[in-house]
Amino acid sequence: MNLPFLDLKAAYLELQSEIDAAIKRVLESGWYILGEEVEAFEQEYAAYCEAKHCVGVANGLDALHLALLAMEVGAGDEVIVPSNTYIATWLAVSQCGATPIPVEPDAVTYNIDPARIEAAITPRTKVILPVHLYGQPADMDLIFTIARKHGLKVLEDGAQAHGARYKGKRLGAHGNVVAWSFYPGKNLGAYGDGGAITTDDQVIADRIRVLRNYGSRVKYVNDVRGFNSRLDTLQAAILRVKLQHLDRWNDARRKIAAQYLVGLAGIGLTIPFVPDWAEPVWHLFVVRSKAREQFQRQLNKAGIGTLIHYPIPPHLQGAYADLGFGKGAFPIAEKIHGEVLSLPMFPGMTLEQTNHVIVACREAQVVAE
Ligand SMILES: *Cc1c(COP(=O)(O)O)cnc(C)c1O
After folding, report:
1. Average pLDDT per 10 consecutive residues for the chain, totaling 369 residues
2. How far does residue 42's CA lie from ligand 1's centre (Å)?
3. Ligand 1 within 6 A of 90 CB?
4. N or C: which end of the chain has fewer CB within 10 A?
């Protein structure tokens, strides 16, 4: 049995007629930038997230960047970010001229450790930027409490967590600003780039709406130096179709994760831990192996596709060499990056395929150890 890490085409084939119809509708409308499709998606996604506003933008990185700008983050400011994340979270801060201040994750949940945040706050800190990594919500109440105490804003990176719940409420429903990516492989993915911000804050939403469209509220009148970062109209139409299936797809991911959690327990792999207040959406199913290279090679031999999210933490990337963090600066993030492996996880995976991965993991563990 050959099983790819991810099968994006399967979701298209499943919804082909609906998606083709949506694309045709846009092509035949003669309206290709912003317009009704984007507005309709924004309303539908805001409703899904139980947020008051949604603004569509070109991608997840722009969603983070424009949200930070709307929160008035600029040169000389500091933003607290996880040391354990995809580099986009850091880059968005740098794009504002601000400095990302990394905070180590909790070694069990892999998300930013709220207990370490206060030590990183300085008079220059403006925003705390937690990431809901792998689709698991970060511990937001602790983060909100710290933010309130120090007069800081909070921006959530929800790029991997569409539909996840924290203490019963969806991410996006906590009255806060959340940045989303619709990169094709995300739980809600377009067929190209896409992103959005949801928030209950009218001022923030309005600023982002202006920033994404050349700083203009009225055509050819430019109030601020903005960007071209609009959610593509075709992608908005596609996302409207896929949004209707998101909960069903997330349920399918949950079933696969439940099967993995049982099948992979007690064989020497570190499997994900879910706090009782978290309802993750399993963007990735990440295990840790002390002998990752061998473990991955064995799975590969068994025809199973796996990926590493992520092989190099942001602080050790050439892009951030100037911050001067060497090896050992963030040991928890480094340890996680050195051991993680993501197993196949997509809604169309069958019980049999999941079982095949479990059997192969058990065998690979014996060889790797
Ligand atoms: C995918 C991702 C992003 C960036 O999204 P793009 O749409 O690719 O720009 C940001 N943060 C995290 C955690 C991501 O996984």
Report:
1. 91 96 98 98 98 98 98 98 98 98 97 98 98 98 98 98 97 93 98 98 98 94 96 98 98 98 96 97 97 96 97 97 97 97 96 97 88
2. 19
3. no
4. N
